[in-house]
Amino acid sequence: MRTIGWLAAALWLGGVSMADGQRLVRVGPIYASLALDDAAGNSRSFSAYGGSLAFLTGDDGEVGVTVEHYGNLSTDNRVRRLTLYALDSYYYPVGARGVLAPFAGTTLGLARVAESASLCALLSCTDTVSTTSQLALAFGLGVRVNLDDAAAATVMGRFLEVPGSQIQALEAVASASVALGGLRRGNFRGGTVGPALSYIIPVSGSLRGRAPFVGAQFQRETKQTTTLGLEIDFAPLRITGSCPSTGCDENAILFAPGAQASGRAAWGRVYAEAGFLLGGVYSQGPDRGIAQGAHGGLGVDLYAGQVMWGLNSRLLWLQRNSGENVFGVQVGASVSPRIGASH
């Protein structure tokens, strides 16, 4: 939660930073840390090391590959190790230039998970370690720090899940990279990002928001009536009715990209938005893992000089692990540098 809050604060600064260009390739080591809950609900932290290689594909996009290895992820004194081979995609709404460049990141990877299980024969028991290959999924937000055009560093907070294992966690990933190759000098200016605050009004289902959601809202201007938007929120939730032994409270990261059809005026714009919704629940409980669904609603952006204020409301649908469908209305506000404003 501290990592997400720090990143959300840094996004504003990144939204107003510009530079001439960035080199096409960056390569370097990474450090990662995640926290897993044990059976009693106590959090334990683990660290990993690895490397990354990334390529700029446009003014607002980057793809890369990473390898990271957790030598120990055990919360119960049994063996649990993870090696992740991942394909990463980074979306920079204001470009990858500037001293600070905010981004949203998604990851699809191959996870090699080694876990032990007890086998008992006659009067003796032994632990056997088996290694399986599984898909891994991660999503979150981060900030890239550019040191002129010679080097770059990134820090990102994300939800990471390896289905079929005990690994569903909030992870912090930091990298330090040397920049190589020719300079990319683009003309991309049409994007913005800023902090967002929202509240959930329950409609049906057994999940409620126990506090306001805090996150970041990304928007990209394509000079057309249809634009791209993304909101990432930290969502403190509460289960109503009967609660499991781990308690009624859950924590999740909501990842909500959407297509926005808009109408513009001198004072701002009005838009309708629709897209899919992912909820990464990393705390112990019946919903731990990824819940999926959709969202859609209306919003308005109001221009005030170099600043843009946003108001929006949308219907959320999430399907829990139990199969229950949960509906709620998310009402929120955001503030960011104005799209297209001069810097």
Task: Describe the protein.
It is built from 1 helix and 17 strands. The two termini are 31 Å apart. Residues 1-6 and 8-18 have low confidence and may be disordered. By secondary structure, it is mostly beta strands. The strands form 2 sheets. It has an 8-stranded antiparallel barrel. An 8-stranded antiparallel beta barrel has the order 9-11-12-13-14-15-16-17. The chain has one helix at 2-14, and strands at 22-37, 43-56, 61-70, 80-91, 100-121, 124-147, 151-161, 168-184, 191-204, 207-209, 213-220, 226-239, 249-265, 268-281, 289-304, 307-319, 325-337. The chain has 2 domains: 2-184, Porin (Beta Barrel), CATH 2.40.160.20; 191-337, Porin.
Features:
343 residues, mainly beta, Porin, 8-stranded antiparallel β-barrel, 8-stranded antiparallel barrel, 4% helix, flat
Helix content: under 10%
Largest sheet: 8 strands, antiparallel, barrel
Q: Quick one: CATH class of the largest domain?
A: Mainly Beta
Average pLDDT, rounded to a whole number, is 84
Order of helices and strands: HEEEEEEEEEEEEEEEEE
Shape call: flat
CATH topology term of the largest domain: Porin
Topology diagram in text:
Elements lengths: L1 H13 L7 E16 L5 E14 L4 E10 L9 E12 L8 E22 L2 E24 L3 E11 L6 E17 L6 E14 L2 E3 L3 E8 L5 E14 L9 E17 L2 E14 L7 E16 L2 E13 L5 E13 L6
Antiparallel strand pairs: 1-2, 1-8, 2-3, 3-4, 4-5, 5-6, 6-7, 7-8, 9-11, 9-17, 10-12, 11-12, 12-13, 13-14, 14-15, 15-16, 16-17
Short description:
By secondary structure, the chain is mainly beta. It has one helix and 17 strands. The chain has one helix spanning 2-14, and strands at 22-37, 43-56, 61-70, 80-91, 100-121, 124-147, 151-161, 168-184, 191-204, 207-209, 213-220, 226-239, 249-265, 268-281, 289-304, 307-319, 325-337.
